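Notes from the 1:1 (GR / supervisor)

We went over the backlog. Supervisor wanted to see one worked example end to end before approving the batch request, so GR pasted a single chain during the call. The sequence is below; no edits were made to it. Supervisor asked that the structure be written out right there so they could see what the output format looks like.
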Amino acid sequence: MDWLYIMMPIAGMQIFWPGLIILGVGVGIIGGFFGMGGAWMVTPGLNMLGFPMAFAIGTDIAHMAGKSLISTLRHGKFGNVDYKLGVIMLVGTVVGFEVGAQMVMWLERVGNINVVVRWIYVALLSLIAWMVFYDLHKRIQKEKRAKERGEEIDALATGVNWAAALHKIHIPPMVNLTASGIYCSAWLPIFVSFATGWLAGILGIGGGLIRMPALIYIVGCPTHVAVGTDLFEVMISGLYGAATYTYKGRTELVAAMVMLIGAAIGAQVGAVATKYIKGYGIRIAFGICVIGCCVSILMKLVQPWVPTLTTFLDNGATVLVLGLITCMSLYIFTRMLKGVQEELAAKKTAR
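Structure output shown during the call:
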């Protein structure tokens, strides 16, 4: 079965190449749909396929940069990108990213990178999963109360509205973001971009893992605009990150190219799917993916405590990540096909 493995010249190791293909195609679809590079799945996925954590981070960032460029162009055609907001966030993204990347180099030198990065992932994924489903819970309560009054709430209304309170903080300069329908202090998106940039650098993600929900719940963007604008930011941070990690010798370009071939196709599918799956459909699917990814990382972390189950947990974590990516990609693809069929049928009836 040697033909199923490919040599990584920079990392100096053999890697299961079908796993790279699955990651590339699947995360291309998921990333284009959720508005993020998908590194929250790819970095743990590469680590589980055998890459040391530093190489998993650098390689994923290089793959992510190219894929996000393709997705951003597609979302731009749909009017889902708030370019003014994206440009404002660039400074914080780049500065935060470099701070995170330097922390990774330090953790690698002291030998604690795998454990520290994995626990940060678990904490972050748990927080985001709670935020998504807490919002869903509040939304369901609002719908129930409105139904009792014989009313209907706005289809775009959220369960929680933290952004409304933050918009009342008028610290100059103030900006009017017409594409998102927001008027707020420029420091709000700058703060969000610095935090997500830092996480991008230390976790090997484009920042989309928290930027997409942050744009919705903190900045106040509509979901579809948050998706497109986040991809624009992922593209910028990814290009910068690919350059800095390659300079540091932690990017395996062969693996990045293998994944990018599949991701280029998948990203187109994911971006188009957002036209047919709106609002809470995107958020619920996102929350499920976050929980699954968190469980897979925990399966890696508990191995030293239960050495007799090491092989089972190791294989189980890999199967869970690849299976989650495959199932979610199929769900998005089938929903897109159904939406296209309904749209064509409606046009035919209209004629």
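Supervisor's comment: The first helix runs from residue 17 to 34.
Batch request approved.
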